[in-house]
């Protein structure tokens, strides 16, 4: 088992849901984590809560995954503070679900720019630092990245793209000692798409479950790579 204490992580969209669950699990293991949000206030508030957990430290950074220079600036702030980047988690995402006749151009572009281009911008901005550390890149795709559904044209396109992009990147980057894993969750109890989690979501995957998965991946011996992981609730809702 690899010791991950004092390693550093950069998590896009880390103020709630899956991103926050991953950040909390890593901080509890002693990793230092930078979480991003398009709102500095939200990032600071989430980082304050993370800093109550224990061993590791957290900082909140304002950044927009749709803007490459914004991603570069955020990565550089992490490097200025901690000097290295061991893990980059491309988690930020949105969902617009509508019949193709009703889906607007703005909704299409926002979905693709956030969910797909944002993943490319994130790894591109952090690539040199990950090469230096022989680090880890994890993208959060979805079971919707291999399973299409009515009303999901934009979301399916973005997540099919994330899955394909990440797996191709895995083949490109492993020659540099960088591991790449694509995590593809099904139903998760989060605030995604303005959902308010409740007791009715107890059957779903919880964000802390995915946090534990990322800890397990980080602790795994680097000779072994689970390159694509599909995750489902054990029982249907």
Task: Describe this structure as you would to a colleague.
With 237 residues, the protein is α/β, with parallel strands linked by helices. It has six helices and seven strands. The longest helix is centred in the middle third of the chain and has 29 residues, at 105-133. Residues 7-192 form the Ketoreductase domain.
- For the secondary structure, the number of strands is 7
State the order of secondary-structure elements, H for helix, E for strand: EHEHEHEHEHEHE
> Would you identify the CATH H-level superfamily?
NAD(P)-binding Rossmann-like Domain
- Overall pLDDT: 95
| Main sheet record | 7 strands, parallel
Question: Can you tell me the residue ranges where pLDDT is under 50 for at least 5 consecutive residues?
Answer: none
What Rg is obtained from the alpha carbons, in whole angstroms?
A: 17 Å
CATH class: Alpha Beta
Shape: globular
- Total helical segments: 6
Terminal CA distance reads 35 Å
Q: How many structural domains can be distinguished in the coordinates?
A: 1
The assigned CATH architecture is 3-Layer(aba) Sandwich
Beta fraction of the residues? 5-15%
Category from helices, strands and their pairing: alpha/beta
Q: Numbering strands along the chain, what is their spatial order in the largest sheet?
A: 3-2-1-4-5-6-7
Share of residues in helices: 40-55%
